[in-house]
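Reading a protein record of the kind used here takes only a little practice. Each token is a code from a learned vocabulary of local backbone shapes. With that in mind, consider the following protein and its fold in token form:
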Amino acid sequence: MEVTIGVQNVAREITVETDADSDEVAKAVDTALASPEGVLRLTDSKGRTILVPGRAVGWVQVGESEKGRVGFHSL
């Protein structure tokens, strides 16, 4: 699952590839945003932990990973 996080006052977003499903990610986001001291905590597919303060989260996009495409497309 690919998760992209927009952080307030930061020009670039954070993209994380995780083994968690969309419901787990949504629950983590909801928990982080529920309190002023909340922290969005995600573990990527390599086992690294990403922490983002809940008050700094601007937006979160959750979607399937796009597989690399091979071949030619006819126009």
